[in-house]
Amino acid sequence: MKRSLFFAFFLSLFLIASACSNSEQTESEGNEGTEGTTETEEAPTEPIKIGVLASQTGGLEAYGEQTLRGFELGLEYATEGTMEVAGRKIEYIIEDTETKPEVAVQKATKLLEEDEVDFLVGSSSSGDTLAVLPLAEEYEKIMIVEPAAADSVTGSEFNPYIFRTARNSSQDAVAGAAAIAGEGVKIATFAPDYSFGWDGVAAFKEAAEKLGAEIIHEEYAPQDATDFTSNIQKIIDAKPDYLFVVWAGANSPWNQIADMKVQEKGIKISTGAPDIAALATMEPLVGMEGFTVYYHDLPQNDMNTWLVEEHKKRFNGDVPDLFTPGGMTAAIAIVEALKKTEGEADADTLIETMEGMSFDTPKGTMTFRPEDHQALQSLYAIKLEKKDGVPYPVPVLIRELSPEETAPPIRN
């Protein structure tokens, strides 16, 4: 009887222990299941939103259009037509800065506060861009700068949320100086009187003087000027060997430089070859040696071939222009970064991912330099020549300038 009671007592303890064990296991399994569901729910699935700032009106309207066309093509190329990355749809919102810094700030604030974008891209004007940079830091959002070129963007005004796919003024300067500067060469410069012009001249002067040239005169004109007679006369009076022009916008000085017969007075002209519309005004400068950011038949790679062919299909046979590949590159940089972060758009994660990131573009491989987030890239030493069937002087390649060769000084 005692043995039976003992056995019953032992069996009851065993069953209680077993039940507790099963209960704990069930509870544990239930918790694991709940955690798994939470992780799935927390995985980012909402759309990636990109706010694009561009000059759709104003003096740089043509640049804005080129950038926007390239950006849209770039998203399509980078996502293979899905407009999706890491399971997240991509949406973009375009805002016109009107080429006015105060408007750029208003539009960027709207994109950040009302539209709650994950990225900013832009802008066509260095003045617009510099006004917006502090907002990227304030709202902790990555801003891809394209096509603004002022050195100060990744220099004195740099903050860690800024990444630039556009080349900067120092990269232009290295290319421009390589074309004309040398020991004892006397050079005058001409540029618009705002950040793009100032930075461009300062960078060119530094590069040219390293090669032994002397900058004997610097001339600046208002950004919206249309009459350059007095500026050009001062340059003629200075009697340089070369006039190096830094310019952007539709109100270019080329016609007046030709009308005032600057070259006939023994002054050679050099500049960065501009977009196609401006090339059409440079007939008097055939034979000029300088550089260019891009011309559609210079880069020889599959991505550029795709860009040229697709652009012709969609835009009535027009070829991509000076800043079209830049817009495409900005889109590719965003998609490539999000692929690496598996769709995570947290700025700190993106900064860590994008610093030192290399990626393919229509101009070849670019790399975001970790120190200042400037994209190192190829530029092109060119000569303007006439070409049968083309109604404007064509930039003909002298040689490609490698990303290492055009790497600008770190100025931040």
UniProtKB/TrEMBL annotation:
Region entry Disordered, spans: 22-46
Return the Acidic residues bias intervals.
Answer: 26-44
Show the InterPro entries listed in the entry: BCAA_transport, Leu-bd, Peripla_BP_I
> What PROSITE patterns would the database entry show?
PROKAR_LIPOPROTEIN
Keyword line = Signal
Question: Key word Signal present in the record?
Answer: yes
Which N-terminal stretch is annotated as signal sequence?
1-19
For the keyword Coiled coil, the answer is no
Domain (Leucine-binding protein): give its ranges: 47-386
A Pfam cross-reference name: Peripla_BP_6
Q: What protein family does this chain belong to?
A: Belongs to the leucine-binding protein family.
Q: What is this protein called?
A: ABC transporter permease
Organism of origin is Bacillus yapensis
